[in-house]
Design a protein that fits this description.
- The protein has one helix and four strands; from the N terminus they run αββββ.
- With 79 residues, the chain is an alpha+beta fold.
- Strands 1, 2, 3 and 4 form a four-stranded antiparallel β-sheet that branches.
Length: 79
Amino acid sequence: MKKIIQIMLLFTVIATTAQEKMVSYSGIINFEASIPLFEEVNAINEKTTCILITKTGQIICWISIKDFKFKKKNDARTF
């Protein structure tokens, strides 16, 4: 019985120390590059993946440029 408990504790310790990375698939990035007196440049990307490496404190993010959504103005031209 004592050996079974020790083996179970060993597996528990291994499982808890194996969590070196934390992953998030639901990130939001807001991009803004507006200048006063010019057209507003603002975009949102809701398809971001980030990884936190707990041992080193590094953060890694993957962002696709194609997934940014820009505001579109109504193009009302009269000819």
